[in-house]
């Protein structure tokens, strides 16, 4: 899957870089392609760039998400999906991937 496009991206505040990297590692371990946008830009710009690049899901982490072990999910087509526990987010994405693979 080396040349496959990224399907998920983190937009985070600078204080949450390590948490965002940890989330990406957990996604990678679950077989989900993800990246962390580590530019020193505003979060809204990172979200907008992910939308322009047509990345299906952007997850945002801030102080609240880090403290509660959640990610705030933004779907490119459906918009803001709210904060979700990380385990639930991983399970939902994994189910989407598995369902799509089964239908092909």
Description of the molecule:
The chain is α/β, with parallel strands linked by helices. It has one domain: Rossmann fold (3-Layer(aba) Sandwich). 45% of the residues lie in helices and 26% in strands. The longest helix has 18 residues.
List the helices and strands and how they pair.
Layout: E1 8-12, H1 17-29, E2 34-37, H2 43-52, E3 57-61, H3 63-68, E4 70-75, E5 79-85, H4 86-103
Parallel strand pairs: 1-2, 1-3
Antiparallel strand pairs: 3-4, 4-5
* Count of the domains: 1
- The CATH class is Alpha Beta
Q: β content, as a range?
A: 25-35%
CATH superfamily caption: Anticodon-binding domain
CATH topology: Rossmann fold
Instruction: Tell me the Rg in angstroms.
Output: 13 Å
Keywords:
alpha/beta, Rossmann fold, 5-stranded mixed beta sheet, 4 helices, globular
Concise structural overview:
It contains four helices and five strands; from the N terminus they run βαβαβαββα. The protein has 104 residues and is of the alpha/beta class. The protein has a single domain, classed as Rossmann fold, CATH 3.40.50.800.
